[in-house]
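Sequence and structure are kept together here, with a separate record for every protein. A complete record is shown below as an example:
=====
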Amino acid sequence: MTLMQVWGCLVIWIVCPLLGGLPLIRWVTYALTGRNLAKVGTGNVSVSAAFYHGGKLAGILSVLSEAFKGIAAVLIARYFFPSDSSWELIALIALVMGRYWMGKGAGTTNVTWGMVVHDWKASLLIFIIGGISFTILRDKTSGRYGALILIPLILALLHPHEGARIAFAVILSGLIGWIYKKIPDDLDLRPQEAKSESQTVFRFFRGDRAIVSLDRQLDPNKVGQKAATLSQLKRWGYPVPTGWVLPAGDDPQPLIDYLQPSIEKPLVVRSSAVGEDSEYASAAGQYKTILNVTTTEALQVAIVRCITSYDEPAAVQYRRDRGIPDASMSLLIQQQVPGVFSGVAFSRDPILQHGDAVVIEALPGEANRIVSGQVTPEHYRVIVIPADLETNSNSLDPSWVIPDNLELPVEGNGDVPPRLIQQVAYIARQLEARYLGTPQDIEWSYDGQTLWLLQSRPITTLQPIWTRKIAAEVIPGLIRPLTWSINRPLTCGVWGEIFTLVLNNRADKLDFNQTATLHHSRAYFNASLLGQIFLRMGLPPESLEFLTRGAKFSKPPLSATLKSTPGLIRLLRRELKLEADFKRDYERYFAPTLSKLSNQPASELSPVALLERIEMILEVLKRGTYYSIMAPLSAALRQAVWKVKDEELDNSQTPEVASMRSLQELANDARHLLPTRERTSEGSFLFATLAEIPDGESILERFDQWLNQYGYLSEVGTDIAVPTWKEDPRPVRELFAQFLATGKIAENEPQKGRKNQDWKVQLVQKRFSLKGKVTEIYSHLLAQLRWCFVQLERLWIESGLLSEEGDIFFLKLAEISILIAGADLELADGISELVRRRRSQLEQDNQITNIPALIYGNTPSVAAFNTSNQQARNKLQGIGASPGQVEGKIKVLQNFQVLADIDRETIIVVPYTDSGWAPILARAGGLIAEVGGRLSHGAIVAREYGIPAVMDVHNATQFLQDGQRVRIDGATGIVEVL
């Protein structure tokens, strides 16, 4: 390379970007109009913005200024590299980069005129081909990207042997295409607000087609959600009346001339504003709908009336109240359906806010009679449980006709045929499934032959959707204020860190504190927020349920996946390093902290020292929470990817399984010390007998050692309000007595470690083993945390601040910190009343039955909770979590307890399972749980003991009764009442 060419490189990469960033368009427009393009419209300083906001003269001068830049860049490159034309394209690339990063524009005009100087033949061909295509298609997006494709394609045809030139043409086109995705365009603004002398040209270059039908794929950001949804439903195969869209600002005359309404074929004109019928606002009744349009003149009037309704004071105030920016309103014109019966349907009950009922209001005649509020419609409720959709028709199947063999229970009577009501309910629930579980408000009309869909939109009052299905595994049962004030920030904070790792700055506006909440003292996760987060991550919105419960995947948008690829790679790196990171943190944080805690019991500390100890534990618990989330998800992901069966994995090292195995071995060693008669004694008598016989003392010492090793476990490992086995050893003493009386339970003996595992199983096994280690550390830390609060409670009971055991768990962590600091005397004076009120509320919540798995929107009433609309069936469907079939008698356990009448003929039914339920499972013949999945504690223990288990049988403790005989299939998840 010569010295001249070196200088050329420097000039191109320094001067061309500066030239691109030179704000000539902004200066010209400001000089002529006084308007700063960077602060009006979209903020995009472009030629189209100059035409829109500055008028024709500003636009023409802007074109000339940008043309000068493009020509100058090419001539600079040609001066330094006269024999290498690829440098001219490099100069344009540098110019475009400066235009975007400094000048807030795309550089389209620069490249257009630069290409004319670079190769006029290629430019002419691009202009002719692109111009013809745009004129015919009248689609701005297609015209833009078509021209970008033509640049390298035509240069390749004209100069097939110049590889570098073609390569840089591809880079140039790709760069501009990327910029198009990044910046807004003033061509998307409302043409009627542009400068009057620019409106004709502006409308043409918008590129909207004269006639847009619902058969096309439509963009809700351009034509509104209502029209876009109906076009989507139509393309899915649902019955939607033929319709057309008049985009905002388009000339309505071509469409009016084309439609020619008549008495025989009346039309309906409806609004389709941007923001209307969205997930956040319905705008129901805010804009005009004109029916029975039968003449061309009436159509013209209807269009004007509908458009002007956008600017009526009530509509403007509605948008302001909901933070919806003023945008534009397209119109939706459809053939009017002659309704024999019409109505609306809610796929979920908006009053109860939970359950499987579809609520329908209907009447003979047109649909507008229902929504007008001037007549009282007939009211129906139809029960549609998920099995009705999954068994008879895939919920995402485009076939929308209800199967002949499916009869859905209908509540309500009237003139509308029951089968039509069932069909409406079926299609409403299908659409809900289509839209990823978001409840839908649909408007429908039946003409005597076809059930037509007139509208489908989210029920905005039923957002967000709260799910208990996963939360009930993480922290089951009734939750006291202290437990929640600790668990919620820990869990939400760690989830926030994981999501931010993937999303980076796209997570800025997400409030991760809204990930979880309490409804009537039960934990629920925000399914709507989690779905939104997973979609942003480029993952299906059901990802969390897939990983924890085996739910089916849907396909996420490819663009979101590509956008999140760097973040997903970062998350994958974390997953691959998980074991090494845990080992490092174990040596650096977990082991030293646990050692320090064990060397100084909490009983020796003052309230101030206890608070310092609590804060230290919480700091380490935050790290532990990260692993308690990542390890199970990593294990589930690996198992799903490598398709490893549950029975191929060894969970024997998890604390709940290892503790039971160790206790069984101890009981077997003690059997020969006692006569057969005394082996069947109750726990308290048995331990007294062992203390009096030779060698019995060694058994008791070993039991105490066992209790020291596993005493940190409790009925609910994640709830510090629940006593540990160390504090209340009666349940495990009774279990020890049971093991001593029966010896090894052959069929229920934990399975030994698997051998000869292939490499796939080994990869998954590593994560399951890590999960067991994490559970042990996490449970140890929670137990130490509980013991701190128990000691603090003792001190406060002695001082008279608290009245009885358990009071402290009705306070929040922040309140405890304030009380220790003595910073709020009013709080201290009212602490008794505060605890009494919260105790009373927990007792009321404990009386609630039929806790719904899903809650839509705000908290429903207690009465709604206690109303079950699911009918008892002979077969219940859940998640198969431990293979095998067994018949037995039901024993319903609402709370953890040790009962002597549980044996291998007993199938226990529980609301949830945690590590503390292992003593019960070790003696049972089968397990049915209301919540949980294949990776829950109950499922793991059941597989280790070879017990068939079915999880996620909603309200099983209500439907099944003691003494009923059932057959359960742990592979298919079916519970059959015999």
Remarks:
- Confidence is low (pLDDT under 50) at residues 391-397, 867-872.
- The first strand starts at residue 212 and ends at 213.
- The CA atoms of residues 650 and 754 lie 6 Å apart.
